[in-house]
């Protein structure tokens, strides 16, 4: 920024309290964001990031009633006194929950929505819509209805939608939550390009800090408990321990540097793995650390639990979504399913759980033909946690939601209370047991859906993006909790776009691309194969980049060493 302009977003002693809450969710916020700035807002789950975003785009208090005090001016508009419609001419928003923002009946209509209101000629409108769709790679799905899209595809539609809006402020609330790693990277590049071309002000709320920092941001605003804890340049913030202290995961290459005893400072430019300065002494520390670790243990043999043979399925005749998929999940395994948006990962789970019926192929569970059993029978053995908690939750109160399946089984209220409370405790939700689900943040709702599946004690659980939208503290809590369940004998399968999760928790990865299983390898080996990474829209971990920079080979082993140390450190911390 050359000259000091006046802020485009200005919070002055601003507080906001939802009518349904006893205390303010935002407390005395003072924050100025200037035109053309790129600001990343980070903070633990439930600290008020989405609430802050909702105040900027007019959702609060217009749609979610509440009391505001202090001042909030957005592009010259007194935001708390304006409607969401007035503010939509100034702020374009992409939300965490792509279902909640689909307005059109088809992808094309949805993207064109903003243009229809601007009375633009049809031809021009089609051209702009097609161009925006191409930018996010959804041009082949323009006539699809929302229910025919995968989670990540819906998120791409939302991104295309705001790109055709001509607004001065773009607000992204967890834009990467459902995107495959390669698309996540492209999205950040895209946001960056749009920002550069249009000089839009960009505010991004995101837990995937390392992914956002792939391109430069001007500042990171760290929030905690409704307040602003820090507002610093990325190089400054990443040199401190503030992220870790506030339950946010720092980029993995930085954690590796710290494990080796390297001191970080702003002058070392820690914001990017490519720019971080590693001098001779640091290099020695890293190499010594690498060689000081013990070798990994060999994996044990197991007996088959789920066997899938030649599974083929299409939602519509002539369009195959899954093609000839064969795989075996062993009892006691922890496996991840990874791959491109729309590759068929969720469809695979739906076939296993009985929501859809395959066109051909077999599914065996402990040797039994699963295709002969209905959904309810299968649910006793196989729990399925969907990607979007809002699609799973049907009860108003948290306790009732978790108790639902037990009540359907006819268990006594006493038995139900004991089991539900135990599960809520395990999932960190016990303090909220008497709350309505509507008062929870997205991440908290996700935990409710995990609890409602776990309460049935299934032998296999399939989780679709279990940690999407979770901060590092809850990520660790959920993953350590799933690991604990796994150690007790529950087999865990996770569909994930989080390459860190795959590396840290699942020794084996099943890779899907375009309806096929294209690899069944160790997680570290998958991320060592550039061709596979490209084919399945995955992303290399920054640990590989760091290992290569340090000349440490094989890089796969460097990653393995990091995972072992990290596991040790974190299991002591939990
Ligand atoms: N509509 C609402 N009504 C009442 N309370 C709400 C509402 N939405 C959010 N809250 C409360 O505000 C707090 C902050 O929620 P918010 O969604 O802003 O957090 P967040 O930092 O975005 O979390 P996450 O990272 O999990 O999405 C939560 O603890 C929640 O209880
Ligand atoms: N109900 C449906 N009707 C028609 N087509 C569908 C339906 N559900 C999904 N599809 C299509 O099937 C393909 C696979 O979708 P699926 O949800 O299994 O992908 P995914 O690998 O889980 O993707 P993501 O990573 O984005 O969640 C997509 O191209 C999608 O458009």
List the SSEs and their pairings.
Layout: E1 9-18, E2 26-33, E3 38-42, H1 49-56, H2 59-62, E4 66-74, E5 77-78, H3 84-87, E6 91-94, H4 107-116, H5 122-135, H6 151-164, E7 169-173, H7 181-198, E8 201-205, H8 209-212, E9 219-224, E10 227-232, H9 234-239, H10 242-245, H11 252-259, H12 280-291, E11 304-313, E12 322-330, E13 334-339, H13 345-353, E14 360-365, E15 368-369, H14 375-381, E16 382-385, H15 389-392, H16 398-408, H17 413-426, H18 442-454, E17 460-464, H19 472-487, E18 491-495, H20 499-505, E19 508-513, E20 516-522, H21 523-526, H22 530-535, H23 542-550, H24 555-573
Parallel strand pairs: 3-8, 3-9, 6-7, 7-8, 13-18, 13-19, 16-17, 17-18
Antiparallel strand pairs: 1-2, 1-4, 4-5, 9-10, 11-12, 11-14, 14-15, 19-20
The structure holds adenosine-5'-triphosphate (2 copies).
One adenosine-5'-triphosphate (ATP) binds at residues 18, 20-21, 25, 43, 45-51, 64, 439-443, 469, 471.
Question: What does this protein structure show overall?
Answer:
β17 (460-464), α19 (472-487) and β18 (491-495) form a beta-alpha-beta unit. The chain is built from 24 helices and 20 strands. The strands form four sheets. The chain has a six-stranded mixed sheet with strand order 6-7-8-3-9-10. α4 (107-116) packs across α5 (122-135), α5 packs across α6 and α23 (542-550) crosses α24 (555-573). The protein folds into two domains: 9-246, 3-Layer(aba) Sandwich (Rossmann fold); 304-540, Rossmann fold, CATH 3.40.50. The model has no long low-confidence stretch (mean pLDDT 88). 39% of the residues lie in helices and 21% in strands. The radius of gyration is 24 Å and the shape is globular. With 574 residues, it is of the alpha/beta class. The longest helix is centred in the last third of the chain and has 19 residues, at 555-573. It starts with 8 loop residues before the first strand and ends with a helix. The protein binds adenosine-5'-triphosphate (2 copies). One adenosine-5'-triphosphate binds next to α1 and α18.
